[in-house]
């Protein structure tokens, strides 16, 4: 009659065969290995105490203090990772709306714009508005708690906003450039670079303006409407006779003029820096409150 | 299952989960090793195990994949145990101290007489191990309790394979003699 072995006796038997093999290997003698086996089995009865879960947890906590910091990525890779992370944060509608309006600008320019008549191309009119609207939505007082939370990470709120601004501006710049290339290819009389420059500088200025204003007043709607108003007034007075010198002054007459481009670029940089400074100011005031 | 070597690489990158996993995987066994090489002193084994992990963390940046991780960990522990005895000018004192039997004998509902016999036997093994020269005790514990391969022991102690074998052979014979003497005296 065969006897069924218990799991415990199975384990013992497996221990025994493993130890036997080890002893034979170590002593290089089969008989001596076998003779030593009972003694080694007996020796192994000396059990060691286990560590308690608390001891292990405390040890892990202590060791965490010695954990190396995660390596910093290369600057370019780090910037790329930051931008990629911010794509998810920027409102998804901005991308779709920008692409649609830019496409409309290209279509209208393609069908009705005549270079010989002069004036701003429809694409040059629409591109600054599209970016200004998107940029204005980047900052709102509703977002402050989020930015406050993000301030506890290694990346500052200012850098996060700058990353988002770069994303929205870069996306629209790419769209405008693609549209301009398409127009230059489709219409022989359209020259690529003059067309690009005609919308690029107003776009930079207007986006910095709305970004700055939305942060100062802590309201994206006010920022966007002011940007639209300024640009709308400018375009209106650019295409019609100036009825009033105050209105003309208010519309910033050089906004689309080639000779103003250096000033527009400088103003855009200064407004962006001031806006980022203002974010920090808001944050500190929020912390004190 | 993720290997020790992969966990070590992840710790180099500052991975907290990898550190927790590695400690949970090795803490008990390392304590067992130190407990047996230091004569059954639980508190000392616990301190030395903690110090081993601390030293490991302080040199983790020097770890080079795919160097076997476990022998490295036990080499640190062995050196610490040796340093402890050198520094404190103490000797293995299992024969002199009170036997800490509740730590050594698991109470699985066995009758008290059985537990007592097991405790006495465990003490005798501890004493016999304690009488071995340090070099022989280390190889015996690494081989028959921790079940390292001969090559791994050679790496841990940084000695040739032949030396591992000769120390094992001598150590085992001495241990058997000691145990037989005890059996006869009983």
Explain what you see.
The complex is a heterodimer of chains A (289) and B (186). Chain A has 289 residues and is an all-alpha fold. Chain A has one domain. Helix content of chain A is 74%, strand content 0%. The longest helix of chain A has 30 residues, at 157-186. The model of chain A has no long low-confidence stretch (mean pLDDT 82). Chain B folds into two domains: 1-92, RNA polymerase sigma factor, region 2, helix turn helix motif (Rna Polymerase Sigma Factor, Chain: A); 98-186, Winged helix-like DNA-binding domain superfamily/Winged helix DNA-binding domain (Arc Repressor Mutant, subunit A), CATH 1.10.10.10. Chain B has helices spanning 4-12, 16-37, 42-58, 69-88, 101-104, 112-130, 134-144, 150-157, 161-185. Chain B is globular, with a radius of gyration of 18 Å. Mean pLDDT of chain B is 86; it is low at 94-99 and 101-105. The A-B interface holds A 18-19, 22-23, 25-28, 36, 39-40, 42-51, 55-56, 59-60, 62-64, 66-71 and B 11-14, 16, 19-20, 23-24, 27-28, 31-33, 35-36, 40, 42, 45-46, 49-50, 53-54, 57-58, 60-61, 103-106, 118, 121-122, 125-126, 143-145, 147, 150, 165, 168-169, 172, 175-176, 179.
Number of strands of chain A: 0
**Helix-residue proportion of chain A:** over 70%
Largest interface, with Cβ-Cβ < 8 Å? A-B, 34 and 49 residues
How are helices and strands ordered from N to C of chain B? HHHHHHHHH
The CATH superfamily of the largest domain in chain B turns out to be RNA polymerase sigma factor, region 2, helix turn helix motif
How many strand segments of chain B? 0
Largest sheet of chain A: none
Q: Briefly note the structural class of the backbone of chain B.
A: mainly alpha
CATH class membership of the largest domain in chain B: Mainly Alpha
């Amino acid at each position: 009659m065969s006897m069924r072995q218990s799991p415990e006796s199975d384990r013992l038997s497996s221990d025994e065969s493993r130890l036997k093999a080890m002893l034979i290997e170590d002593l290089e003698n089969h008989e001596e290995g076998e003779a030593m086996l009972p003694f080694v089995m007996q020796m192994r009865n000396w059990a060691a105490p286990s560590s308690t879960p608390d001891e292990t947890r405390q040890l892990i906590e202590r060791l965490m203090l010695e954990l190396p910091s995660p390596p910093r990525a290369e600057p370019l890779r780090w910037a790329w990772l930051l931008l990629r992370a911010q794509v998810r944060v920027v409102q998804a509608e901005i991308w779709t709306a920008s692409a649609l309006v830019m496409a409309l600008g290209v279509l209208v320019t393609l069908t009705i714009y005549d270079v010989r008549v002069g004036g701003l191309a429809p694409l040059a009119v629409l591109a600054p508005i599209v970016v200004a609207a998107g940029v204005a939505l980047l900052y709102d007082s509703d977002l402050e708690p989020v930015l406050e939370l993000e301030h506890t990470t290694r990346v500052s709120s200012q850098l996060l906003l700058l990353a988002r601004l770069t994303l929205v501006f870069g996306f629209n710049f790419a769209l405008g450039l693609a549209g301009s290339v398409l127009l230059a290819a489709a219409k022989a009389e359209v020259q690529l670079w003059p067309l690009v420059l005609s919308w690029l500088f107003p776009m930079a200025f207007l986006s910095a303006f709305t970004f700055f204003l939305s942060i100062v007043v802590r309201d994206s709607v006010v920022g966007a409407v002011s940007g639209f108003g300024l640009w709308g007034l400018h375009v209106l007075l650019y295409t019609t006779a100036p009825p009033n010198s105050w209105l003309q002054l208010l519309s910033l007459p050089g906004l689309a003029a080639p000779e103003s481009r250096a000033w527009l670029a400088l103003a855009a940089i200064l407004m962006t820096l001031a806006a980022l400074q203002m974010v920090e100011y808001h944050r500190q005031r929020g912390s004190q409150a | 299952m993720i290997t020790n070597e992969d966990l070590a690489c992840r710790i180099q990158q500052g991975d907290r989960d990898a550190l927790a996993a590695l400690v949970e995987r090795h803490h008990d066994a390392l304590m067992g090793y130190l407990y047996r090489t230091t004569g059954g002193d639980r508190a000392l084994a616990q301190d030395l195990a903690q110090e081993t992990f601390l030293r490991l963390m302080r040199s983790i940046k020097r770890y080079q994949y795919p160097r076997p991780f476990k022998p490295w960990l036990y080499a640190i522990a062995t050196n610490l145990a040796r340093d402890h005895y050198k520094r404190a000018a103490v000797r293995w004192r299992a024969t002199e101290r009170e036997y800490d039997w509740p730590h050594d004998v698991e109470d699985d509902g066995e009758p008290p007489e059985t537990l007592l016999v097991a405790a006495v036997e465990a003490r005798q093994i501890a004493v016999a191990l304690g009488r071995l020269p340090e070099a022989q005790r280390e190889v015996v514990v690494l081989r028959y309790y921790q079940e390292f391969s001969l090559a791994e022991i050679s790496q841990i102690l940084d000695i040739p394979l032949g030396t591992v074998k000769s120390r094992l052979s001598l150590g085992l014979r001495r241990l058997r003699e000691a145990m037989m003497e005890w059996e006869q005296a009983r």
